[in-house]
Amino acid sequence: MRAKPRTRAVVTVVTALSAVALATTGAVAAVSSAGSAIDADGETGLAAAQLVWSDEFDGAAGSAPDPANWNHETGGGGWGNNELQVYTNSRANSALDGNGNLVITARQEGGGYTSARMTTKDKVEPRYGRVEARIQIPRGQGIWPAFWMLGAQFPDTPWPNSGEIDIMENVGYEPHIVHGTLHGPGYSGGGGVGGAYQHPQGWSFADTFHTFAIDWSPDRISWSVDGNTYMTRTPADVPGTWVYNQPFFMILNVAVGGNWPGYPDGTTQFPQQMRVDYVRVYDTADGGGGGGTGTVTASNGMCLDVAWADTANGTPIQLAHCNGNAAQSWTFAADGSVRALGKCLDVAGGGTAPGTRVQLWDCNGTGAQQWARDGGALRNPQSNLCLQPVGRVQNDGTHTEIAGCDGSAVQSWTTP
């Protein structure tokens, strides 16, 4: 069990809003810690964006979240913040409700508390795009719901160097405020760089569903609530290294107690439930979403190619002389997939053994289709193995496979 890497104080940025401002201008001004206003468009719109992954949580009441998308982290021990809950994989703490929602339930059981913490590590690891969820948060003193992300290299790269993007956090003593924060090397815990959004009417966010999102592109992240952008951060805003131009995995959880929210008291009622209508990842229209489209070139100048330009499932991926055709045009999508000819670069059978072949397959959001750009390598996080030509031979027509990552030239690719 790993600790939750956040020991925090309340962030210092609070957004000042009014119902009049929303009604008349459709815009929100966020006040930064330096006191300057960040103008934001009230409607960020997804008309030109492409949905590349989602979980709509459709399923029978009482059924488990889709294991192709979600892992359960379990255990207690405070999670680095002196929290009280024990996370479980029980349906009593995480289940579909039959009405299109995931429900994470924090319960008081005996002398303690149980809840759920779910991640998409090694399954869905976006790099750029819009990441959003429609959530009705729980309420009460000591209740701490969150929708957030950690760098995909965690825990091999320890926190905070791995990076953390908090899309939405709420502490129960501030029912009308939600927070967004960055944690990285030199600015973590109480020193995280963030801001907060206040409900325009001052009502509790637990009263109904709200949409919490980031719009994420190279060297830029913007936070929004219900389409109202309230904060934008760039490398100039952080007092350390910007570590957000890499894949991240998503996390949903409800904590009970901790250094920041404090602890339940006589006013806190249990059980408390966080309802999640959906989680979605979009490639955004500004071109930042997936990190580019173009050829993927081996160290000897040959191109990654769909054999015979065949779109059938199972078509081998090979090296070939570069020719500029569509079979050599690859898009790095925001859901972590790499796409050509309308399909995805796929590890055959979801295999995790060295030597497993790489092929073209219908995009399905599984870990077999996740690829992280680590230096010059293309690594499949599910197997933690890297793409290379079979037998390490860089010839025209050589098929590809996954193998132990070794930093060699045959595992080095130039990507768009």
Automatic annotation (TrEMBL):
Keywords: Signal
Superkingdom as given in the UniProt entry: Bacteria
SUPFAM superfamilies, alphabetized: Concanavalin A-like lectins/glucanases, Ricin B-like lectins
TM region positions: none
Family, per entry: Belongs to the glycosyl hydrolase 16 family.
Record flagged with keyword Endoplasmic reticulum: no
InterPro entries noted in UniProt: Beta-glucanase-like (IPR000757), ConA-like_dom_sf (IPR013320), Glycosyl_Hydrlase_16 (IPR050546), Ricin_B-like_lectins (IPR035992), Ricin_B_lectin (IPR000772)
Keyword hit for Signal: yes
Chain residue ranges for the region called Disordered: 58-77
Name of this protein: Family 16 glycosylhydrolase
Domain GH16: 31-287
Annotated signal sequence range: 1-29
Lineage of origin: Bacteria, Bacillati, Actinomycetota, Actinomycetes, Micrococcales
